[in-house]
Amino acid sequence: MSIDTVLLYFFVVAALAGGVLMLVAQHPMRVALALIAVMLSLAGVYAMLGVHAVAVFQVLIYVGAVMVFMVYVIMLLDVRDPSFVVRYGRLLVPGVALGTLLAAALGLGMAQLRVTPAAAGVEAPSYLVRPFSQEFLQQYWLHFELTSVLLVAAVVAAIAVIKSGRRQDG
Amino acid sequence: MTPTMNLLTVIVLLPLAGFVLNGLLGRRLGPTFVSVVGCGLPILAFLATLEAFSTLQLAGPDAALVEHAYQWAAVGNQSFDVAFYFDRLSAVMTLIVTGVGSLIHVYSTGYMKGDASYARYFAYLNLFLFFMLTLVLGRSLLVCFVGWEGVGLASYLLIGFWFEDPAKAAAGKKAFITNRIGDAGFLLGLFLLYHVLGTLNMDEINAAFGGPVAPAVSASLVGVLLFIGATGKSAQIPLHVWLPDAMAGPTPVSALIHAATMVTAGVYLVARMHGIYEHAPLASQVVAVIGVMTAFFAATIAVVQTDIKKVLAYSTVSQLGLMFVALGVGAYGVAVFHVYTHAFFKACLFLGAGSVIHALGGEQDIRRMGGLARRIPVTFVTFAIATAAIAGIPPLAGFFSKDEILWFAFASGYGGSTLLWVVGSATALMTSFYMFRLLWLTFLTPSRMSHEVEHHVHESPWSMTGVLVVLAFLSAVGGFVHVPEFLEPVLPLATARESLEHYEHTLVYVAVAVAVAGFLAATWLYRGGLAKGDALAARFPRLHRMLGGKYFIDELYDAVLGRPLHWVSDRVFLRAGDRFVIDGTLHGLAATTRRVAGRLGRIETGQLQWYVTMAVLGIVGCLAWVWRHV
Amino acid sequence: MSEPMLLNLLLWLPVGGIVALGFVSKGRDPLVRSITFGCMLLQFVIAAVLYQRFDGLERGLQFATDVPWIASWGVSYRIGLDGLNVLLVALTAFLGPLVVMGAWTAVQKDVKLFHAMVLFIQFTMLGTFVAQDLFLFYVFWEAMLIPMFLIIGLWGGARRVYATLKFVLYTAFGSILMLAALIYLVLATQDGNGLTFDLRHLSGASLPFTAQVWLLAAFSLSFAIKVPMFPLHTWLPDAHVEAPTTGSVILAGVLLKMGTYGFMKLGFPLFPDAARAMMPVIMTLAVISIVYGACLALVQDDIKKIIAYSSISHLGYVMLGLASLDLIGIQGAILQMVSHGLVAGGLFLMVGMIYERTHSRAVADYGGLARILPLFAVFFSLLTLASIGLPTTSGFAGEFMALLGAFNAAWPAHLAGNQVPLTLAVIAVSGVVLGALYMLWLAQRILFGEARAPHTPLEDLNARETTILVAIVAAIFAIGLFPGEPLAKTELAAREFQQRVLGESVLLGSGAR
Amino acid sequence: MNWTDVFEAMLPEHVLLAGLVVLLCLEIARGRPRDGFALTFVTLVVAAAAALTLHTQGYAGTPFPGHFTITPATSLAKFVVIALTLPVVLISRDDFADTRFYVLLLSSLYGACLLVSSESLPTMFLGLEIMSMPVYALVLLAQLRAESAEAALKYLVMGGAATATFLMGVALLYGWSGQMSTGAFGYALASSDPLAVGGVTLVVAALFLKAAIVPFHGWAPDAYEGASVPVTAFMATIIKAGVLFAALRLFAGMPITRPIADLLAVLPLVSMVWGNVAAIRQTSFRRMIAYSSIAHAGYLFYALLGAAPGRDQAILFYVAVYGIMNVLALAMLPRGTDDARNDRLESLQGLYHRHPYAAIAIAVAMLSLAGLPPLPGFVGKFLIFRNVLAAGYTTYAVLGLVASYLGIYFYLRVIQYMFMNATPADVPANRTRRLAVAASLLCLAPALALAFFPGWLLDRF
Amino acid sequence: MADLQVLLWLSFVLFGIGLVGVMVRRNALVMLMCMELMLNAVILALVVFSLRTATLSGTVLVFLIFVVAAAEIAIAIPIVLMLSRQKRSLDVEGYDSLKG
User: Fold this and answer.
1) How far is B588 from chain D (nearest CA, A)?
2) Angle between helices A28-49 and A68-76 (to 10 degrees)
3) Which of B324, C187, D242, D376 is the most exposed place for a label (fewest CB within 10 A)?
4) ipTM of the complex
């Protein structure tokens, strides 16, 4: 049992723990931190698997951008809100049951198939940044462009929402 | 068969023209026009009939004139034709219809003078003649049926002529409905004949049944079915109930339709279809029995009636019964003979009664009459003659026909029996009794009229009395024309059983004796007025009530048919069936849908997390299902 | 003008009328009325010409048009006259102008929409009759709901919304299943060269027995609702009572015939084997309808309801005649359809006329009208007599032949030991009595007795109303006295129908096994 | 790769994009209100024309092999989607002052176009997102009523869940086949490998979520009611169309077998019944339309049961007709300051006597949605059930028809309100708006055309 | 090399947890974060499969997901903020003024 494996499993457990923590933590801030933990440990997993590109961007985009934004928002909201003190809605039991059922369904569905790395015959591509970027910009540059459209739309949408929110107040 | 120049069609159409003219223009052009058209055209028809009759005579005894008017409808190779058929039987009937018809039209001009709907009256009367002629002249049962229903309509209209009185309108409806019941039977018989023989022409049907190969249908069944029709039209048990009520109509109508012509249509039909009955002993038996029962019971009722027209009505029913007895025992000619004599004296009686009512300003109850003999002599004399005739006093017309009927009832080789004869004679006895009772109470006994009525009494105009005289004369001498022989070629007579030949004369004497006995009884009871009669009635109260109530047949029918029908229709069909079961189910479904809709609305709680949960539920469900069935 | 064009003109004229109405400015009601009336009249003329030129001895369609419509699934605009529909087309076109005249003064609200709807429904009804393509037929059949929904719902009585929804939902349910069956049928009869909705092709095809039964059941449901046959009739009284006069006339006059026509044109010929098997059921239902309708008419106290239920009873005769599968019976059924169209239509028009004067349809409110409104009474009694099938009226011709047909079918069965048909026939014949009973009772109650009306004085029928009624009565007697003329046009088609349905089965009438 | 090829092939998308950019520049340059309207309208017209010409030329090509493909069919679909947006834009003018609305509209439309001709799952994923994301904002943009934001959130969360589900499905498919092309989905239909089946199921579930099939429909009524009328129209037509076309791309011509067929038969059937029944009791017009759209989504997915060529035909025709009629109905609604009030069904009472034209137009729409001939809705219904029957699902077809029967009632109820009920006393007087009328004409003309000559559209397959 | 099976399961579990969070947590922001968690689970699955199938397109999709996730949050947060201002609360169960 190599050190890699130990680390990998460490990260797996960490991610799992973080997930569970997200459910049980009361204050959104804690939840946010738990989510960050999950993301980081997942990044670790990716790194362990050698998919460095993903690992890097996971940290940069997700933790770096998204979660920071999120934490910021949480901080500027007041804490006396009922949803801060009462954790769960009335659908706790069925919700949990269904969630487990879903995970179980997926898991059991996959039970019999063994997911293993590609057979030795196939030369596995390297997941380093360079080859990845090449692939991306050769095969998927349409999508690359499309993401820009998406982002534009998103930005406009966000602005529109905020503006209309103002209009509503004032 | 000899062709003619559309004479028969003309005969039929003349009254129709009268109907149209009077119906459309009558009200504008006034009573004189109406009277001229209304009487003129029937008389023309009568003359035309004579013309046709002479042609027929030349053509030979068993000849027949046939006229094909037009093809009503054709389906496949089969065709329904409107054709007219004129042999000696139809000749006699046509003569009666047009002849007596014309007379009564004339009479009506006097009787109905000044009535608000004079034109309408004559229009209806002409319409009736039209249909009646269609009935007797029609060659095919279909045409006959057209006339058959048509006369029903006419009688409906005329009975309800004074429709403001609900009772009269109701009477008309009752007549029509009762007839319809009979007609249903008629129709069935007609269908059956058509289905088996493929034709509706009466002559061909008769021929078919007479033919070497018997048709593939039991003659008795057909016979009975047709006879059901006859019972409706000719007011035989059990469908006799309408005729007495029909007296609601104007008296000339009662004379024409409900005495002389229409009610005898049943007799005509059976006689016309004799080809069937000759081969249907069973059916004939039924006819005879029904006939004799009707005759007897009607007579018993007539004995206690106090309404002058009701008495005559029941006597008509009973006479018709006698005719059916004759038909039942195969003496078709004799039946027609009685139709013929009966037409005269019964018409005379009704018109006389009309004259009386006319004189008394509408009074119809014989208990409030009497002593009219001197006040309205012509009416009295004619009425007396007719009474004698119907009572069967020789040598008047009624005597001959009735005597022959009784003789055949007794001796016919085709179902004659002593029992028939006994009951028949009893009927004759009662007939003579109640007729003379009527005569006494109306004309001879001291007056029981209220004062102002008595004051108004006057003899009717010549247009009425003249007609009375003519009819009285006919009912006196009519009997000497021996119709049965005349009809022999077309209507074979049943042969009497040799074993009984020698009774013939005895029976004649018995018949006379019966008539006289009736006369004497009536005289003894009623020449002093009502007292004795009432006393007698008081002696047997229940019997009297029963007879007075006409055996409560109407009430029975209402209880057995009328009310249940309404009850079922209303309670079972309408409330239970339509409203409760059918609509109830539908409304129930609708309500359920709305309730479900409400439930579904409540599922849409507005809780975002619930929506997510539903979705997840869906996903899990899908996955589970798919993986179970993959 | 070429003859097919003539038929197309007849069909599309109402649409033209609607377009024309579109240009009429608001509030010019007289113009609206005259345009509509003009359309109808012209249509009637065209129909008369077509009827005259129609040759009863010629097989197949006449004045036929056949243009591909939706090529990719073999739907085409395929119309034409044949023996089965020629009379109904004539009837529809005949009633058209009368309906408009009848509504001349009665309708004052939303006149334009009203007349547009009347034209629309005329269009759909004619289309249903002349369509020779299953898809086209269904389109017209179903489209008819829309104008009727509005006519009842907008200009109807107090409970009009309930009535009209009931009518539409009832009918739509039937046609939904018919749609399924229709698609199934077309797919099942699909052959090498793709789908087709051509009725000639379809009625030539032969399906397995069970399939036939299911399909016929689906079609029958829809037709039986329209007829209506017991126990699917409860929409009719409500619809009739709540509908405005025009609605009732159209309903009774033409719409109900669409059901019987459907049976005759589609139901039986498309699925002959199943039809033979189901005959006893249909016959029974028909006879039940006859008696049931009559009995219910007996206990109604609303004039319109009485006539409505009488329609149920009369159409029972039609179904009986058809189900007899006897030539005379079929012919009688066709005749009875036309006759009922005239009689019931006329009666409803008359009810409308009196209602316009007194705003009451309750039998109890009237009495002795023969004294107050003599002319009205004359026509009403004439129509009454026609309705009870008195000889010389069209009612008699139809009923007589239908019953005769039923009997012709029943007797052999009886000889063969199957008593059911005979019993039914006998009951049907005695239904005649009931018919007389309720109609005469109605006449007695409103025409006779002492004079009584919601408010007097009432003016008698005016020239316009008289014209309408004269036309109808004339037609009634024309058919009653000379039925041979129309029957000659339908006979060939009737025989083809009979042969198609009977197929090989020789046992006439005992279609049951 | 050939640039001109790319240019021609994606012409409609490019036009939309260009319009979008120009709008943005305008916005940034000087935020003059209303600029957007005319420009957007022109953009849409040009784009539609482009799509139509591509279709009529029978242009076929793959500018981005394995990701993006153009065929006459896809061009036609694009044309339909873009053309449907025209009336929406027309009726939107009164509610939306700023260009943002149009930018969002165009970008969403752009996404829909992507979906129509996407050939790889990533493209489809981006298409879905580009299509839906602006709509989250659109829902609360008008701010005519307080609930808009809530509606937006619900829509967004459900949409997010849908995205996640879709991606998970894609992941499984990818794990099974190792490729990202829509073809993978097609093959997966045939396979019984748990990965494949699971992936297919999740993707289908995601589509159901987006198209609001029971039980994934929770968001639809709230979103429709909360959004403003034009946005509702947009959601009910374009979004649904996009999703359905995406489904067509995925199932492209592949036969559907059990157990997936069960999903595609049962859940749509349920949503037909559910939608039609639940609509009966609604008092808000848009909410009623939402439920009706749930039912119609059911019909649309039903069509997938049919065999390949008829399937596309049916769905395209149905989407077109259904969209036209929805927009028509919503365009003619009485509009005014008080949205919540105008949205009540009661406010329609006696509409015929106030605005006959509007009433008749709405009536036409309702009857067509109810699927009564001679209106085109009937042809659509006919097509779908013909396919279902042809595919041998007789029972399902009959049940579906009966379910569609349930719907008739509430459509008729609207007509009853408009024609048969008296105008309530306090109904807000609102003028008929010229643009709305124009929009309605834009809908009525093709509606009538399709009613009398459905072949015009049908025979293009 | 480690057993990818476990990682796949992990991704499923995280996906489940994310869903549960969306279903049960009352705080709107927490809901959003749970959705992010779901996306992360998907990413994990994609990576696993891209290793399994020895192709890169999976990882490419991951990048697209990053973008989308960011965009989603960018729109979601303002909406939530608006709501919290409107309703004076982040409690999702309070957002039920549209129903029926």
Assistant:
1) 15
2) 170
3) C187
4) 0.91
